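Recall from the previous lesson that a structure prediction takes nothing but the amino acid sequence as input. Here we apply that procedure to TPM domain-containing protein from Aquilegia coerulea. The sequence below is the only information supplied.
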Amino acid sequence: MGTAFLPCCCASSSFSSLHFQTNSIKIVSSFPSPIHHTNSLNFLKKKWVSESLNIALSTALALGISLTGGCGIAEAAAKVGVNKPELLPKEFSPVIDVAGFLTSGQETRLAQEIADIEKTTGFKLRVLAQNYPDTPGLAIKDFWQVDDRTIVFVADPTFGNILNFNVGATVDLDIPRSFWSRLAGKYGNIFYWKEKGEDASIEAAVMAISSCLKEPVGANNCSEVY
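The prediction returns the following tokens.
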């Protein structure tokens, strides 16, 4: 298997946006004295950046694209070569299952839930189930008209954890980044999907995302993964 993630010289380490670029991370400290708690704050910074970058890189690997700041879509496609529009369905669907993890009934139920999410919250959830390198790759961006209000959920067991997320900048403002890490840890770990099946991981993740997006935005929104 060829290398899927090819960093550019100007790459930065932060969370990915759906423009396939990186956004900066702002750390807000709740500690009373930054002088006395420098080590604690640095630890939290490193932990947060690490978690966010892991999600960004896992999605880049799963899609076969570059999420680094200085690389355009065309450049990433040229380097990686994963752009297979022939794997896209002929008609629009928010769920694309090129791996065959889902039954037609499951796809229909997920599509209905996704439509409800969009109607209720204005956020667009898109699900791609694949086995890398058999993926539409960059072709999904135009097919789904990916924007700042889009969550691209890539279900791919190739890299261990089956749940990978690429989150638009507007979504990122409302949903804590830790939610995506906790969601992947709960339903994406290899023990879960090996025991219950890839389809169970996908369905559980979609329902958890739905619950999260429908919560009022606040200090404790999405604090639980249902």
